[in-house]
Amino acid sequence: MSSATKKQSSISSIQSVQRAAAILRCFAEIDADLGVTTLSKQLSLHKSTVSRLLSTLQQEGFVEQDPETGKYRLGLGLVTLAGVVLDRINLREVAYPHISALAESIQETVNVVVLDGYECVNVGGAASPRPIQYVGRIGRRTPAHCTAAGKILLAYLTPQERQEILPNNLPYFTDNTIVDVHVLEQALVQVREQGYAIAHQEHQLDLSAISAPICDHSTRVFAAVVVSGPTYRIGAGKIETFAESVKETAYNISTQLGCASAG
């Protein structure tokens, strides 16, 4: 095989992996059973390419097909992979009693979130007991610049680290979304000073959230506790009350994880 042929084969393999990953992300983002046609349009790929990749993913257990509708959903094979990662994060085990108590106390959904690149990922949660609630499912990804948890996690990065992960053009979601990097930097200064972050309808209309940092034994902020709920229940008038509860919960989790500054 010539060097040119080997290079082309390598590029093709990388492209296939990227496309397969894009398909899996589609299921996570849309959170519904998807057909070949929908995925083809969503990813701007030919239907034959999507069908071939889905077949491979199905063989590996990463997706499964509904025999009646012919549509696909994420498969249990991903649970095995996710379990390996989550087993290493004793954060979930330590945090759960604390966030459950907070959810019961303030009657809102509480999540534990980590940063993965530019996105926040829910790794643990306790749902609000109220019928109208924010559903913070495990694995849900949200952009960092317009969420309370994201602002906390960005605030404790160095300017260089933020520059490396933030896109040049911050995506717009609502009229409250911060899309200017300089404005965001100013907001993060305030976040560090007050020790918590808020987001009112910045990523999603009628949704507000308050977040505080969790640090590990080396005092590094690596996660956040975030309370989320309808804006009419978590309005400006309740910020101070909620903020103190969230900060206390984050403090208690940090202390149990061995954070010296928290203890």
Description:
With 263 residues, this protein is an alpha+beta fold. The protein has two domains: 3-80, Orthogonal Bundle (Arc Repressor Mutant, subunit A); 89-256, GAF domain (Beta-Lactamase). 47% of the residues lie in helices and 18% in strands. It is built from nine helices and eight strands. The chain has helices spanning 3-30, 36-43, 47-59, 77-87, 90-106, 148-155, 159-165, 181-194, 239-256, and strands at 63-65, 72-74, 109-116, 119-126, 141-143, 197-200, 207-215, 221-230. The strands form two sheets. It has a six-stranded antiparallel sheet with strand order 5-4-3-8-7-6. Strands 1-2 form a two-stranded antiparallel sheet. Helix 1 packs across helix 3 (47-59), helix 5 runs antiparallel to helix 9 and helix 6 (148-155) crosses helix 8. The termini are far apart. The mean pLDDT is 87.
